[in-house]
Amino acid sequence: MSNENFIDSIRVFLRSGRGGDGCVHFYRDKFTRKGGPDGGDGGNGGNIIIKGNRNLWTLLHLRYKKHFFAGNGKNGSKNNCNGANGKDVIIELPLGTIAKDEASGKILGEVTYHDQEIVILRGGKGGKGNAFFKSPTNQAPRYAQKGEEGKEITVIFELKLLADVGIIGFPNAGKSTLLATITAAKPKIADYPFTTLVPNVGIVKVNEIYSFVISDMPGIIEGAHLGKGLGHRFLRHIERNSILLFLIPVTSENIFKEYLILLHELEMYNKELLNKKRIIGISKADLLSQNEIKELENVLSKKLKEPFVVFSSVSGYNVNSLINKLWQLLNEN
Ligand SMILES: Nc1nc2c(ncn2[C@@H]2O[C@H](COP(=O)(O)OP(=O)(O)OP(=O)(O)O)[C@@H](O)[C@H]2O)c(=O)[nH]1
Ligand SMILES: [Mg+2]
């Protein structure tokens, strides 16, 4: 995937509930042989509802659940008892997801804020019981309404993915290798600078339900904001990332200096980039011994205000802890 934002889309089959039938019944007891009509109404069929959830970032959680059936309404009964409504189905979606009717292409709804609920397919209405039809001219109606059928549609959920996390670093820092390690993306990786020419995007699965989007980009070098190297052309992409992951390899001659150069380049390009949440990944930890890693961590924790993780894409060391930190950062306000 060579585009920095791409469309995640999923096709689902939806069926709303059938409405319950109205009931035909006349009141009877020991003393009343010919009571009035008391048949209750049928319950409404369940609706299919979409709901915004700010903790979802992709549609991955729907990959294996493609059919949604809402419950049917119960029939009305005697004593003016109305049938219960059918159970609604609530489908949680990331903010920004659009629901489209596949057949007509019509947009049925778009979730834009947390907990927003939109009914995209109504259940059938429950039928009225015979009590409802009683009138001065017809005191004993012998009929009731049937419940309405549920409806069936195929819907496409579409989400334009913007990378939530952008990986930034000098050429050869291991940005694309990290992307390839934690997502299914297959970016080109090589031991020469400027292997990556355009950003690559991938989805990181945090667990069965949650995932987020990450992208690498061409390496940034000193003077990038003046047009040196390639990175400047893509700096505008990171304006849309909510977290910046700075990648600096343990082989760097001076980790702090490298970090400051990267920060300076971003600042010169657009000061506001420095307001974004930052985390620092120290890559290629497999090139150090456990003792060296401990020492490095000690130094870093004294000098850095930002969260950091020393990790290795090659050995897998601390990769999960990096993913968890990114997830945490992404979800804190
Ligand atoms: N030992 C070790 N080597 C790594 C690791 N990650 C990446 N490398 C190597 O570092 C070199 C550069 O890796 P890339 O992932 O292409 O680096 P990049 O930051 O994407 O580079 P550009 O696209 O050129 O900016 C390759 O030879 C990788 O095999 C790691 O965790 N350990
Ligand atoms: Mg690369």
Layout of secondary structure:
Elements: E1 6-15, E2 48-52, E3 67-69, E4 89-93, E5 98-101, E6 107-110, E7 117-121, E8 152-161, E9 165-169, H1 175-182, E10 201-205, E11 211-215, H2 231-238, E12 243-249, H3 255-269, E13 277-283, H4 290-303, E14 308-310, H5 319-331
Parallel strand pairs: 1-3, 2-4, 9-11, 9-12, 12-13, 13-14
Antiparallel strand pairs: 1-8, 2-7, 5-6, 5-8, 10-11
The chain binds guanosine-5'-triphosphate (GTP) and magnesium ion.
Magnesium ion is lined by residues 175-176, 195-196, 216.
Radius of gyration: 29 Å
Q: Report low-confidence residues grouped into runs of 5 or more.
A: 1-5
This entry's quaternary arrangement is single chain
Helix content: 10-25%
Reported CATH architecture of the largest domain: 3-Layer(aba) Sandwich
